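Field: COMPLEX_INPUT
Field: COMPONENT_COUNT = three
Field: RESIDUE_TOTAL = 174
Field: MODE = joint
Values follow.
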Amino acid sequence: MERAVIETLAGFVGLSWSRFGLVALNLPTSCLIDAETELQAVLEGLKVRSQSDCQAPLADFDLAKLEKKLNEYFHGKRVDFSLPVDFRHYTDFQKTILKRVQEVSWGQMVSYGQIAAQAGIPRGSRAVGGAVGVNRILLVIPCHRVIAHNGTLGGFGYGLEWKRKLLKLEGISL
DNA sequence: CTAACTAAACCTA
DNA sequence: TAGGTTTAGTTAG
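Field: COMPLEX_OUTPUT
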């Protein structure tokens, strides 16, 4: 597992990846230490559920390219973060849901209920909320684009201000 | 058992 | 028609 902190125009973004893809990507923080601390906490949280991650050689991961995309994103540009993701730390259900969320493109929104319906669980909206709630790969898996059915924000583990801010970058104000 | 990023079906007045 | 209650579905601690 590799890790890094990228300095973007919105702050320090901590991230981690394995040979399978991204493991974590945090929201920007205003100082480097916070980004490192948060990344450490996230990785520890995932470690519990992870299997032997042993000698994982680094995939040819293009940090510079990601840095460029992040800056464009925070600049308000339409960006497509189509990067491979390491889903090993998630349950099958969570993986199914997160993969669906990953398909929601910039500026689009879906409701928890719609995702649930797509996954074949018409009454699973709340379960979807639970699944996106454990997403540790922000932006790349855009769980901020999942909102409540009546057009309201719904929830967000990192604070609704963040959810509102991210959507606003994509031209949506709620 | 509960809390956590929900929503629809059912009452009830 | 509006407003309150119940229930469904997942998962970690």
